[in-house]
Amino acid sequence: MKTFAKACCAVLAVVVLWQCRARGASPTQDKVSPQDIDFFEKEIRPLLAANCFECHGEKKQEAGLRLDARLPAMRGGDEGPVIKAGDPEASKLVAAVRYTGDIQMPPDGKLPSEKVEVLAAWVKRGAPWPDHGSLVPSDDDSSDKAENHWAFQPVREPPLPTVNGSDWVRSPVDAFILARLEAAGIAPSKPADRRTLLRRVTLDLTGLPPTPAEVEEFVNDASPNAFEQVVDRLLASPRYGERWGRFWLDYARYSDTKGYVFQEDRNYRFAYVYRDWVIRAFNEDLPYDQFLVRQIAADRLPRESENNQQLAAMGFLTVGRRFLNNKYDIIDDRIDVVMRTTMALTVSCARCHDHKFDPIPTADYYSIFGVFDASVEKLLPIAPPSAEFEQGVREREEKLEKFMEEKRRDLEARLRADAAEFLLATRSPPGTDENMLRRDRKTRITERWRQYLSERGKEFDPLFAPWCAFAALADGEFEKHAVSLSASFAKADVEGGRLNTLVAKAFAGEPPKSLAEVSARYGRLFAEIDAEWKKSADDAKTKNEPPPTALAGADAEQIRQVLYGSDSPLVLPGDMLDRSLERPDRNEARRLRQEIEKFRTTSKSAPLQAMGMEDAARIPPKTRVLLRGSPGRPGPEVARQFVSVVAGESREPFNEGSGRLELAHEIVAADNPLTSRVLVNRVWTHYFGQGLVRTPSDFGLRSDPPSHPELLDYLASRFVAEGWSIKKLHRWILLSSTYQQSSEDRPEARAKDPENLLVWRMNRRRMDLEALRDSLLFVAGQLDATIGGPAVNIVTAPFSKRRSVYGQIERQNLPAFFRTFDFATPDSHSPQRFTTTVPQQALFLMNSPFVIEQAAALVKRPEIESAAEPGDRIQRIYALLFGREATTDELALGEQFVTAGDGAESNWQRYAQALMVSNEFLFID
Amino acid sequence: MSFFLLARQSLASSVFPGRAWEQGSKKAMTPHINPQPVTRREMLSRCGMGFGALALADLMKQTGLIEPTSAQAATNYVSPLSPKPPHFAPQARHVIHIFLNGGCSHVDTFDPKPKLAEYAGKPLPMPNLPTERKTGAAFPSPYKFQKYGESGIEVSEIFANVGSVIDNFCVVRSMHADVPNHEPSLLLMNCGEARLVRPSMGSWLTYGLGTENQNLPAFIAMCPGGYPIQESQNWQAGFLPGIYQGTYIDTKHTDIEKLIEHVKNNHVAPAEQRRQLDLLQQLNARHSAERAHDPQLEARIQTFELAYRMQQEAADAFDVNLEPKHIREMYGPGTQARQILIARRLIERGVRFVQVWHGEGQPWDNHDDIEVNHRKLAGQCDQAIAALIKDLKQRGLLEQTLVLISGEFGRTPTVELPTPGSNAGKVNGRDHNHYGFTMLMAGGGVRAGYVHGATDEFGFQAVEKKVHVHDLHATILHLLGFDHEKFTYRYAGRDFRLTDVHGNVVRELIA
Q1: What is the dihedral sign for C-alpha A280, A285, A288, A291?
Q2: Interface test mutation site (partner A, options B243, B258, B306, max chain A beta carbons within 10 A)
């Protein structure tokens, strides 16, 4: 039975090696002796360099294997280690160069045998490999670095620093800022004047400028808490949520459409329900931890009331692009949006290989992948749906189910009939194609058979042991060995275990002449058992008995399980069934699905629904790593669990359903070092134009350290301690002297800190798209303050007067207006808007009918029109736009402009437009 | 015209020494668009210069509105689209990509397969490769091929005019892609990735090189009648700033207002608009004077001047009626001819990347009636493509302009079998074929009069000197002066490339 053992040993070796790896068999070695060094450098390294590095070196790592440095070489490839020190026979590398295994290397010709044996001898010596000048950073280095990396340290509230200029210190924020400034010998800037400050804070909190009345009131309010009152007023305004909610939608890659989806309806008809939930959450100051938990797992929380508004929060997960409906890409997008938004971790980098810089192994990616793979998206009614609606949905779903079931029966019957063919096909080399798109049904089913057999081949298998043994025979030698092999199967008891007697019988007679014959014999056996099973089902039917659940004989039942069992390669999971259908059937299935969706979203009886998620009906205990990110190459199993960089090695697997709620709780755990820091930094970034950490969505090892680590930690720890209130955080920042500084340039300070890292002044910022468009409408007296509801077209005439946050975001063909003004890409998480300055922006402001309309509306405002004197009119326009009086010069300039030429009334409109697109209007001092 | 001269000259002196990026090669091509350009140093380090800035700065100085240092800053206004040098001296500086969308059949155009006639109506001696739909017997080309030019490269009768200039082309007959479906193949050809969101080649190039004419969009995608399949994703900026996205032009129209948004103001006469702009700039100048040292303010002032000029310049660029009659006649009649002529006008004006799509949807996707349809489609562009090559050449532009012609894949040499609900049972067309197809390249440092690689004897699959789309991209970047492995953009924790982790420069395609 030696042959049989050998046949299955390749599979076994892989498994054993994986286990070694999982147990953390670390590729360390004792000190390398000088003789060994000599041997390695003279014999081994040149050999590897000449024959292996081209494909397994610095540039390329075929099969994930790198052989130009000790650590990666010992770590092995995608399928585990290839060198087992001391044991050449168990080393895949040796088998490969000997051309004895499945993999034969180098591919273009076997090495001379003396070279092969030198390599084997080296492995036998323990594969000594001097590690000087290692080409890649050693494991220890990077884990050290990660361990000490600032962002992974616990958040601790630091003591307030002592400073000299204590009268400048209005809040703890100031103490931290001033301490750094004093150390650098820079004085903070004087406070901004009241008009500037009010315009700044109003635009910051609401995205709109203050009214002239608000300006006058604040300028004339001598009370010590005048500014505090302004801040509270603005935080209480519904305009606040519309402004800050939009920031969140940037992170959430919000869009009202799906992107390119062939013939499907492109609209996410209920995306706006998520957008409105976000706005409301900001306005109500929903604590940030709850804000996050709901967005990840609202379906797992107790209902709030009859109207389950919170379900809308899960739009965070579901409003992404559809990537031609490729499941793996959709999940990748969800992993990315959750991990970067909440923790500034670039987990998606670990989809195909361990993260190059951060301690995020691929296994962790698939731990999170498993969570989303065990969840399904679903429209969830927010208000209880009417019976009529539910009935309508059910009818249409049943239609689809019935159709699919019918197709499943047909297809599976065909696959059972072709079992022998598939069995044989598993022996031809698997395609090199890693892209599932290209695979036809046959390759996919063959792949399932291959996996099924490899799974069964891990131990002695009473059904497939003969198959394994015959399959292992070399082509030319088949007939020679088949005879003795056949003889060994004459008795059911063979080395290793007991064969299924029916299988043994099939091989008892004449030895097979080819592997095709072996598979044909299996095929016959399958056909017989299938016929027997069908007969027993028919018999039961005629006798009016309940359908059978198993065949009578244990051996027969064992074979039936191959055809019908829950792990049978012939029983197709849902998505595979779909892809395996013939084109007309696929079209029909699509049509039926579209009917459901259409009814759900557009029928008159449809209630308000959330783009939610739910746990899948069947959740596998574990999930599999996909090697190189390829769905065609499942690797080892991993548990659904949190990322090790935060949770540590002692983490527990998630055990409630998909684990989404547990994931959410891990993210907002009080000891999570990232979540609070990330949020605090995001808020800071919006106020100052640059963050304390300048890469707001990457806190990994390649990020710059924070400019003020203590301040970051102070704010983060207070934020958590005081109940994750974002409005409190705003107050801490806004009421500081730091925020209230003037934005004026000071050459002496600039010389010391040209990039204003120490915040010696406020940074001047330009209005973004929303602030600009909304402010134009606002000063023109045109802004429609309606809150919420389905998206509106804000790009083409007749121009909507709604706030920009309610504008339709069409991600497939985002209108030029959005791109021109640096709108966040709706295709993936957007950490921060770009600020570009290009002539297309000017073109829009000069020529677009929208802007011209607003200018016309502005001069028609009653308070403008009613001013008799040009000077008076100009003053009122200045008050509206800039919150200040025009100077004598400016008055003269204006009067000259409007009276020139024919002194036409349209002069006023052009005058107003010039002011509305001027730098003073667009920039926030 | 003087404006162009200025642009060209400043470019000539800044591009070719081309050391700027080599010095910081590790950081080369990391984003130089900061969310907030804060310092002047930062602004200046972005090189290039704003055109027309001098005049404005002078004006501001004359009126005593700005101090000299601000004038300096104004002169040094740099747009994210200002010209920038690549890694090394480039052979090509512009690209025209003529996209035969839907998939032009290579065995009917530039890859003759006489063997198909031998097997006509019979199965090929090997199994048909799986494509999107089932195909059957060998289907010889209905067209005649003949040798052209000194190179003797064979070209189909439906591209006889291209044949007449074939000596200028490098004919890559061994192209291959990944899948036989339009959507992923379009994205692969344009963005180097079949499904995920990645910047298109034109976006990469305008990000890396800027553009030589600030008065026109840097990257233009023209397609008459509407979008191709996958729509504007074909020219998407992906995670790069939105300004690097291709500007879509529906060349069905001839009216400039329908071609470029907001390029014209119908409410105001030019002189009056100039007066308005002067007022705006005076206001802005006062505003800046009170806010010393802020390059963002100066930059914005500049863009209004640029926009003002753009109105005229863009209108001219798209107006083929400004061409002499003999040139218009050389390109021939029809929409294809017009848009190909526009492409030349754009390139001539310094636009970096122009894509010319044949039409809305996928016109070349001839699953049936291929004889009639391919002849018609080729007839629409053959003369204009030949004219483009001659015209670029006579203007000395061909050597610096890379011209690419292909679809997203080729078509099967076997006939497509009838499929319920698709091709109406005509059995006279071809299915998609990503295993082998042809790409035509000309100008811009490409090896002319050369055939590279080959498909098998029936044209089903590239077999000799295979060139994957990633290899093509690596080669194109090389021609434009970039090392495709170093031309990266950091996003979401990774340094992304057009070629991702793939691609080799195909040296044999380079002159």
Answers
A1: negative
A2: B243
